[in-house]
Structures are given as structure tokens and as C-alpha cells.
Amino acid sequence: MDYEAETLRRLQLAELEILRAVDEACSQLGIPYFLDGGTALGAVRHGGFIPWDDDADVGMLRPHYERFLAEAPAVLGPRFVVASPRTHPQMAGMFAKVMLVGTAFQTRETLEAGFDQGVFVDVFPYDCLASDSGAAARQQRACRRQQSLSYLYHSKHITVPHGGVLGACERLACRAAHRLVCSATSPQAIAARFGRAAAAGATRGGTAKAGGGVLAASSASELGGLTEGQAEPMTVEGSRWATLSYAGTAFPYEVLAPARPIAFEGATLQGPAQPEAFLEALFGPTWTQLPPESQRRNHAPVHLEF
Predict the structure, then answer these.
(1) 206-226 residue pLDDT tens
(2) Domain residue spans in the chain?
(3) Which terminus of the chain, N or C, has fewer Cβ atoms within 10 Å?
(4) pTM of whole model > 0.90?
(5) Do the beta carbons of residue 259 and residue 271 sit within 8 Å?
């Protein structure tokens, strides 16, 4: 679907309500977070949403993300649902969503997967990468492989990078791969393998220290079977963090934390410690410039309900 201007703005304001609620919950619980992706770009470049954007993202270091999943639902209350692959196996992405109850934001993929997706804010966990560059590359590849399998499992209609004859061949291959993946594995097995791969950077050398405390794994199911306190601590200096559900950029810890206040649509939320460095690493040196209109894309659903 294409958006009418009024509909897009109404969607953005609904997402702003979720962002404010996440900010309040994190403040109450003492959980650090930061605006991520295009939402961070919008905050710095536009003072709010990118005018044509229709989603919102926040990031958290993995241990903070685990606390958020465990503790935020009770604080957010019944108006919001915190969904992750752990609680909603119909989810394809290896990250969480905070959704507004009573709304719908359905894509072709979520409908096919049977995921009752409402208007949402994505919550991305940032995992500590292995200090060895080769091990970090293997860690990232393993996570991307499991994330790709999850998308193939949940839907046979995958967005492919090409058009024309090549794109048609890619779509046919995805449909065949969907049947194969569904016969060979399960969402729970995929999530477990992703969790083990994501935790690889924090298990052999230990977890990273930040703010005077050890960022220990708090979920054995999602972090490869570790329980709190099993890993040996390491210092945060030199550590790099990335959201591994995508081919994520690796950021030095100091670029991400501690989070700093940032203005967004008249609210004061939390942004990365070094927002300009964060955005240049993520979007390149031309991040301050508006893209051509032909490249201004969004994620318009097939069904939207407020």
C-alpha cells in the first residue's frame, strides 16, 4: 500500500507513543538504550522522523536487551506487547518488537507466517564481537546464516535483490528453499543456533564490563546455554558491538555507550554516545544529505489498522 500523508503521520505518532513508553520503562528500570538506524538519523538530521519513514528502531547491548525482555512487559502495561522469537515463534527476525495493542501492521511475510503484528518499534540487541577478527567474521556469518534460514522458514515470499529474469529465478529459489528449510528444522532450533553464534564473542573471553558492572548473559535459552556468572569478565576497552540479525556495522563500545539525551519529535529520548560517528559508520560520509526521491523507501504494509 502507499501512504496518504495523513496516514503516514498518524503511524509516526503511534510509533512515537511507543518510543516514549519504552523510554519511560527503561528510565524506571535503569536499562540503557539508544535510538538506532534511521530513527537515530532522523533525530540528528530532522529532529524527529525522516519525513517518509514509517518505522522506528532502538538498540540495546545484549545484557540490557535481556533485562528489557524480562522486566519491561510488567512496566509497560497492557497497552503494549513485547514480542520476541522466544515468546512469538512466528517472528522471523532475531530481535524484539514493542507493539501497540489493538493495531495492525501486516506485511505479506507476517501474514504468511501467522504473526499478528501491530504497529511497532523494533528493539535490536547488540552483541559483543570476538576480539579476534577472524573469529568475529565467523560469528557474524553464522548469525546471518541463521537469520536467513529464519526468514526462509517463515515465508516463501522473500524480498530479493534483483528484478527481471534474475529476480524471478531468485524468487523461485526462495520458494524451493522455504519448503526444504521447513522440512529440516524449526523456529526454536534456528533461534537456539543464532543465540549460540551471537554469544560466541562473549563466552571464550568473557563478557564485557561497562559502568562498573559485568554485562553477564541473563538468558540461557537465547545466549547459547550460558547462565549468569559463568563467563570470565573482560574489560570493555577495545570491544566492538554489532546487531547480528543483519549484516550489521561493528561499533566500538565508546560510540554506543553511555547513551546521551537526544531530541526527537519534541521528546527527549536517548541516542548513541557519539551520534555523528555512529551515523557516519552506518550510512557513510554523506549521511547529512537527503537521498534522491527514487531512493526514499519505506516498509508500507498490506494492511494497516489503528
Answers:
(1) 444 433 333 443 333 333 333
(2) 5-288+301-305
(3) N
(4) no
(5) yes
